[in-house]
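hey team, just a heads up i'm posting the complex here instead of the shared drive bc the drive is being weird again. everything in one block, sequence lines first with there labels, then the predicted structure for the whole assembly after. its two chains so it's a bit long, scroll down
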Amino acid sequence: DTAVSQTPKYLVTQMGNDKSIKCEQNLGHDTMYWYKQDSKKFLKIMFSYNNKELIINETVPNRFSPKSPDKAHLNLHINSLELGDSAVYFCASSQATASSGANVLTFGAGSRLTVL
Amino acid sequence: AQSVAQPEDQVNVAEGNPLTVKCTYSVSGNPYLFWYVQYPNRGLQFLLKYITGDNLVKGSYGFEAEFNKSQTSFHLKKPSALVSDSALYFCAVRDQGGSQGNLIFGKGTKLSVKP
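-- predicted structure starts here --
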């Protein structure tokens, strides 16, 4: 199936730990994203990345870092986890075109992170 | 700065009745506007978008939305609601002059359709 897939689906960990969430897309898209959805369901862009440019939301702590081994993968690394990092993290992708602003995002199913 | 507002946290509709989920936006230029739907424990799914042209946009599952520039609104509508339409709906906006990735989402509106 063509899709955006994320692993793990659920992640429970202790404060202070370092963890990673993996994302892969087989849609051939050029751009990938990470979004954070908090407990009130509010969605916020964290990063967008293609092979040319990483755009970082300035409000994201530098404990969060995206790593892209190739065009089909964008993993999210989180260092020194805090209670406030508990959320659902969504990976998404889109195809860059001349009118990129109108591009539709395809989302993964989400990774629920719980920090104890 | 661009922003989007969904004034209703929840909308309750009886099955078979028409539904409207409201969205207003603010951008400095012309907007790209989107509606996405999120079912429980799932990622967001694209419903429809407005780029330019006809103000009435038709999308998936019988949904449509009307772009109103003077009221800066993009309300989602469906003539006859189904119980299976119950989900969380997000309006999103990107300024046509904005960079890739800066898609701003509203806080979401929970739609509940009762039999």
